[in-house]
What does this fold into?
Amino acid sequence: MELFQKKSALEREWQKALKQEKKFLEKRFEKKESLLNQKLEAKVPKKVEETLNAAFNKAFALVFEKGTGIIEKTYRKETIEQNHKIQQYAVQVSQSRKSIRVIEKNAGRSGIKNLTVSGVMGIGMGVMGIGLPDIPVFTGMILKSIYEIALRYGYPYDAIEEQFYILLLIQGAVSHGTSIQAINNRINDYTKTEKLMESESVKSEMKVTADLLSKELLYIKFLQGVPVVGAIGGAYDMVYMKYITEYAELKYRQRYLYNQKKS
It folds into this structure.
């Protein structure tokens, strides 16, 4: 997306974001299935796999559709929104990299905090042999992290279009190979228009997102259901949370910078 002509603070931040995007996409393009997943795939019976996949989809849909009110109780939404307004005023007045980076750093800190909590909870549940029940908790942590990042960049998350955008972010973060580039392009298209295509719907994207997460995490959650050794599976919560929060922060930052240039 070519946006800037002058060497402004916005342009320099935009170029930095483009480089980070390129690095993330290249890294995920080359990603291969983990050796642990390959070994577990051979040991999980097909019937169990189907049961786990159905449970994963059901849990994800439940939290995504019904869990926002509960998730919002875990952070101070009004305070975050007010802080963003103050920070945004500073950006408009100074147009400096320093003022822009205050917003970026705050968004990044919220991602790191949620990443740490997710890792501790995942390992703890793994030690106790809790696998499937962790799925709603893990989904809630994913959405909590994305919601906080969205607010810190000044974006809502409850409109249909925003829910669609969030689902694309999760898809992009856990995809690899040629798929991630295609999803990234869809996200960039949405950044420009902030509108859905007629053929696009939240319900269909929710199913795609749940299937992708299930494919990546299914065998890990199976392992997490084994006491003590399940801590290894629980640790993977942190790995995938890192992918998701890193990508979400990057794409919201690009969206923010794009809209700043337009305004």
